[in-house]
Amino acid sequence: MNRPSVNSPVNRPWVILLFAGLLGLPIARATDATTAPASLPAAEIANPPGLPAIGKWMFDHDGSIAHWLGQIVDGKKLHEPINVILVDATSSSPNEARTKLVTAAKAAGYPVRFGHSTGYRGFIGGDLYSQLPQGRDDAFSNRIFEETNNHGRIFGPYPSPDGYVFTGAFSRESVDFIRDPPHRYASFNSARDDFARNLAAKTAFQLSGMVPLGNEISDDPHDTTGDHDGRAVVLRMK
C-alpha cells in the first residue's frame, strides 16, 4: 500500500482546515483522546458531583471491560474498576499535566515499570483516553513485576473547568512463581489506598475525598469486582 508523501494534503492539516472552511464544513475540535466522542451505555458511566462523566471501568483494546488477565475469582470473571481520580489545576497544557503526573507517581514510589499488560483505555467526559504510561508493557508500579506489587494505569487528561482530570485503575497482584498462573489478583482497595496515601504524602496532589462510582459487583452470578467497594479516591493538585 502506498503511503501519502510528506507533501500530501493528508500530512498538511492546515490544507484540510482551509478546504473545510471554504466549503462551510464543521471543524472538529482538537483532542488528546483516542476516540472522540465515544459512546458507552449509560449503565457504564458515573456522574459524580463536580466532576465530568466517568467511565466505571478500564476498557481493553477491543472495547470490552478489562478482565484482569482472564482471572476467575470465586468462579466469576473479574472486572477492573476505575478507583482513582486525579485533578490537576496547575497545568496549562495536556503535556504539562501528563509530565507532572508521571513525576508525581515516581515520587510516590510508583515509577514506570515494565512487565505488565497494556493497551487499555478509560472514559472521561465523552472521550476515550489511552493509558499512561504508554510503553509496550509498562504500568505504574511500586515493585518489580517478579514481586508482589501494586500497579495501575492512568487515563487522560480531560480538560475540565476545575483542571485536567485523570482516572486510574489500580490493583494489587500476588506473585509466586511456584503457582500457575504465578500472577494472581489480590486486591483493588489496598492498591488504591496505598497509591493515594503515598501520592498525598510525597507530592502536591492532596486527598479530596471519595466518590461513589457505582462499579461494585457483589451479587452477579457471572462477574465480580473482588474487594472493590464501588468508590474512587479523589486527589487534587491546586
Describe this structure in words.
The chain is α+β, with helices and mostly antiparallel strands. It has one domain (31-237). A hairpin with a 7-residue loop joins β9 and β10 (149-160). The protein has helices at 13-23, 94-107, 189-202; strands at 45-46, 54-55, 72-73, 76-78, 84-88, 112-114, 121-124, 127-132, 138-141, 149-160, 163-175, 183-187, 206-212, 223-224, 231-237. The N and C termini lie far apart (49 Å). Strands 5, 6, 7, 8, 9, 10, 11, 12, 13 and 15 form a ten-stranded mixed beta sheet that branches. A three-stranded mixed beta sheet has the order 3-4-14, with no helix packed on it. Strands 1-2 form a two-stranded antiparallel sheet. The chain is built from three helices and 15 strands.
| Cα-based radius of gyration, to the nearest Å | 19 Å
Estimate the mean pLDDT confidence.
Answer: 86
Report strand %. Answer: 25-35%
Q: Globular, elongated, flat, extended or rod-shaped: what is the shape?
A: globular
| Total domains | 1
Largest sheet: 10 strands, mixed
Helix content: 10-25%
N- to C-terminal distance: 49 Å
Extended strand count: 15
Q: Low-confidence stretches at least 5 residues in length (pLDDT < 50)?
A: 1-31
